[in-house]
Amino acid sequence: MEKKEINYIKGDATNPQAEGKKIIVHVCNDIGGWGKGFVLALSKRWLKPEQEYRNWYKSGNDFKLGEVQFVEVDSDIIVANMIGQRGIKGTKSVPPIRYEAIDKCLKKVGDKANEIHASVHMPRIGCGLAGGEWRLIEPLINQNLIHRNIDVFVYDLD
Question: Which among 93, 94, 48 has a CA at the least distance from the CA of 72?
Answer without folding.
Answer: 48
